[in-house]
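Changelog excerpt

This revision adds worked examples to the README so contributors can see how folded entries look when concatenated. The first example is reproduced verbatim below.
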Amino acid sequence: MFKRKNKQPFLKRVQEAAWPSMGWGRYGTMLWLRLKRVSVQASNTSVAAGLSFGWLISFNPLLGTHTIWILVFSFIFGFNFIAAMIGSLVGNVWTFPALLWVSYQVGDFILHLFNMSAQSGFGNSLMVMMIGWPFIGVASFLVSYPIYYYLVKSIKQAYIKAKQLRERNKELK
């Protein structure tokens, strides 16, 4: 529905993304419809993985880069981008101190396993968090994925039942 017959060259696509020839309003509407279609038709696995990946990224101490990480890894692994963005809301103003503290503690523990210690200072603390966040992030992914998968599956089944019930009620009228 939204695909071209002839694929545009890469530079033309970048130019269109930076300054759309159709105008910003129509471009925004097209993006919204595309995202809506993707989210409704997405598989349970894609949505659950996206939500869990949002949790994983929330432990990343590079706070301004979360959206970029989500965009890249959603494209590579096929996670649902919208679900990943929603899942990343776990990391917010109130939870970042706790998430970063846990990342630091895990990184410090890993350093102690190799008989290393972190020196004081912001740069060294950031490096300790950079060591720790992938481990705690993957652990959160592994814990949250089955929970989200069950929830998404249940919600989709309830949606299908409600839709069938509405259609049946329409036929009876």
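The second example, added in the same revision:
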Amino acid sequence: MAINILCSGDFHGEIPAKMAEIIDRDEIDAALLTGDYMPFFEADYWKTDELMKFLGKLQIPIYMVHGNTDFLALESLSIWERKHKNLHFIDWKRIILGNHWLVGVGIGEDWLYLGEKDIRVVERLVQIDPKRTILLSHYPPFGVVDFTLSDTHAGDGYLRRLIERYQPPLVICGHIHEAKGIDKIGDTLVVNPYNDPIIIDLERMEIDG
């Protein structure tokens, strides 16, 4: 049985109308969002409420992690989660999704990168059943889908080493907008959809972008 997930993120207050169109058109079982719901500028913070209202009206479960621009709005985002039964923040949690486990990797100790304490939490969750674990992370791993406009790799080294060790089948990430794309670390598929939705069949690990 196919489990189709829609992956997106880095909305920064913008309404992802294309996401709603895909959900209405296709058989989507859940959405996985990689964080950064807040706009860049304080004058636009009101857009976050409109975004959360929009997501709360979608008729599928939505699993989310926070991004680095969300750290000033953690409480207000949690209020929206309580208002809408389909919205679920899963930072540092492990939940079941079809025949897989979904592990959420939230914002790190300094809001930009993961620290040793952060990665130990993730490792405890992943090592239980790594071959059936999907990582939903705001940060990309170092060296893939993380190349910036300043010609540097800006991914997370701790996350890279964890993936190399445990080889989960799929990592969904964001953060580096210009690095949108698909790559691999060994047998692990790494997807950075930015805010352009990508559909993945979890049972076949097939991508329909």
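Reviewer comment on example two: Residues 16 and 203 are 26 Å apart (CA to CA). The first helix runs from residue 17 to 25.
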